[in-house]
UniProtKB/TrEMBL annotation:
Gene Ontology molecular-function annotations: lipopolysaccharide 3-alpha-galactosyltransferase activity; metal ion binding
One Pfam family this sequence matches: Glyco_transf_8C
Domain Glycosyl transferase family 8 C-terminal: 258-311
Entry keyword set: Glycosyltransferase, Lipopolysaccharide biosynthesis, Magnesium, Metal-binding, Transferase
Family as reported in the entry's similarity comment: Belongs to the glycosyltransferase 8 family.
PANTHER family: GLYCOSYLTRANSFERASE 8 DOMAIN-CONTAINING PROTEIN, LIPOPOLYSACCHARIDE 1,3-GALACTOSYLTRANSFERASE
Cofactor names: Mg(2+)
Pathway this chain belongs to: Bacterial outer membrane biogenesis; LPS core biosynthesis
Record InterPro entries: Glyco_trans_8 (IPR002495), Glyco_transf_8N (IPR013645), Glycosyltrans_8_dom-fam (IPR050748), Nucleotide-diphossugar_trans (IPR029044)
Entry protein name: General stress protein A
Amino acid sequence: MNRERSTLHVAFGVDENFFRGAGVCIASILDHNPGVDFVFHVFTFGCSADSRARLDKMARQRGVPMHVHLLDEAVFSRYRHNPRSNYSNAIFTRILMPGVLAGVTERFLYVDSDILCRGDLAPLLDLELGEHVAAAAADVHTIAQRRLKAMALKGDFYFNSGLLLIDVANWNQARITEQAIELIGSGSYSLDYPDQDALNKVAEGRVLKLHPKWNVMFSLLGELRFSHRKLAVSDDAVMLHFGGPLKPWHGWSHGCAQEMFQRHQRGSGWADVPLDQPKTYKQMHQCATYHRGHRKYLRSLMWYGAYLGKKTSVLLRGARVPLLVVALQLGAAVQESASWVYAAAGL
C-alpha cells in the first residue's frame, strides 16, 4: 500500500523487553510532532498478548496506525552462512525491514527503542537521499575510530545504526540486507556490534551523513555518579539516544532522563507500568552508586548489601569458577564496602 510522502513511516525492532521503550518513543514523537502524519511499525520475532494489546490501545487513543510485524526465523534458511548459531534474532530486525516495507512506503525512519524525541522530524520528509541507501549520524568518536580500523573501512565515516532514514528501493536494489546477513554469518570479521558493523561495511559510501542532532548519544552509566546534575543537551538536539545497559526506564537512571521518559510514558500504552527495579547484581551495584551520588547513604548501603549477597550467590553457583577467584572477588568487594560505610558515616 503506497502512501503520500508527507506521511512519515517510523519503524522499531524489539524483543519483549523493549516494547515499552518503543511505545514511549512513539509517544515522544507524537508529542513533539502534532503537524506530521505518522505510521508506526514494530518488528519482532515474538510478541506477548499484553504487549500487542497495549500497542493496539495506544493506537486507538492516539489515533495513529501502529502495526506489529511478526518475523519468522525461517527467513535465515536461504543464506549460505546462517548467522543464527551465534547471534540472537533481535539484531536482525532492522536489517530485514526494507524487504517487508517494499510497496508500503518509499522511505522510513528506523529508530532504536532507547531513543526519545524532543524535536521536529518533518525535515526528514524532504531530505534528498539521491542514490544513497540510507542516512545516519556518525557514532561517538572513540567507537568510530576503533571500528573503522577493525572493519577495514576506507573512509572516515562510521555511523551509528540506532537511527536510519532508509530509502527502500535503493536499499533493496543494492541487496544490503542479503550482504549484511551473509557478512554476519561468515565469521570474516570480529564484530563488536554485529548488525551495525555489517551495515557499515556493506553500505560503505552509500550512507548520507546526518547532522549529529538527529542521534545525540548519551551513556547514562557514565553519568551515574553525577545523576543529580542536569543532562547537558544542546538546544538543537532532536533525538536523544540512551545507549548502554542503563536506560531511562530504570529507577536508578539519571533524573532528567527518568523525568523525560515518564512524561511521555503517560501518553503511551504503558502509563501504568512503574520504573524497573534492579534485578541483577550489576544493576544493584549501579543503584547503590546512584543513591550514593544523591547522598542517600543508608539507601545506597542497603543496595550495596543486596549487591554483595546477589554476587556471592552467583559466584558460588558457578561451579567452574575457582574458589581462589571467588575469594579474591569477595575480598575486593569487602574493601569497596568499607568506603561506602565511611561515606555513610561522613568520614
